[in-house]
Design brief:
- About 80% of the residues lie in helices and about 0% in strands.
- It has 15 helices and no strands.
- The protein has two domains: about 1-85; about 95-345, no CATH class.
- It has helices at about 1-10, 10-25, 40-65, 70-85, 95-110, 110-135, 140-145, 150-155, 165-190, 195-215, 225-255, 265-295, 300-320, 330, 340-345.
- It is mainly α.
- It starts with a helix and ends with a helix.
Length: about 350
Amino acid sequence: MRIAQKMKDRQPQWEELEKLCDAMELGGKTNRAVGGQYSGAEGIARFASLYRSACADLALADAYQLPPATVAYLHRLVARAHNQLYRANRINPRRWLDILFSEAPKRIFQDPCVRISSVVFFGLFCLSMYFAFQENQFPGYAEIMAGDQALQQAEASFEDPLDAGFGHYVTMSGFYIQHNTGIGLRCFAWGILIIPCLYVLASNAIQLGAVFGYMARSETSSGDHFFEFVTAHGPFELPAIALAAGAGFRLGVGLFATAGLTRWDSVRENASRAVPIMSASAMLFVLAAFTEGFLSPSPAPYVIKVMWAIFSSGLISFYFVILGFPDLKELSVPSGNQEEDWDAA
């Protein structure tokens, strides 16, 4: 009898919880429930308290075998409150724009893994290109690094002026999306072990640089057509490879440098920090693939391809450098917590 009386006394709180659920289902807030008595954090705290009490009442009702109607009512009430308390966040376009144009570029710009992968890739690419171009000082370098067959194939592919039909563009765009994505995924997948990722990144940089240097030689007859082809999509494709490796490195850091966390928790934490890096890499790979499939092999005037390369380079620089550069407040006011400072970087 005492349990039954206690359940009867609890009915006003159940009704209050129902009103809060109604308000949250209709407007997503509690300030319109119970005559506007609750608002903001106070309403959320009251809702959570009533939810816990309803869970306890449901357990008592089940244990003491109260009337089935009461038990079924409490089941429905607890389920409604649970769905509101643990519901997924609604799509917020403003929040997504803030992540895309504020948080993501800052995280990428300040991430040391991205800096390391960029230095390794572009450093080796430029060095290899120089060695391959200077045939007199480094004889046979391009043939050793890229292979005779690859160089002959590249030279033969660009003997004729660029001119292809629309069907060719669509086919090649799909091919380049698959090919470019494969390079990025290999760099990303091996990044968790660090050394294999460095090998894949360095080998791609050296081979690409050797081909570019070889095709830049004055005696290479098809060099002009080659650079007419690569000019438009190069600014998208090359940074995408470096970013994919940087995202993989971030996972590797989480595996080997746990900063006091368990190894699993460290990997999960660093994986969340790798998401914006890999997302940016994927976006650049897609842009490079469409450019490489439609604009690069087209007979469009070379000046248009140069203008597109300049525009895309400026766009990338604006996103990763201008938007990514830390605010003055972040530079001048330390947080006082070394872990927070490292996580922010």
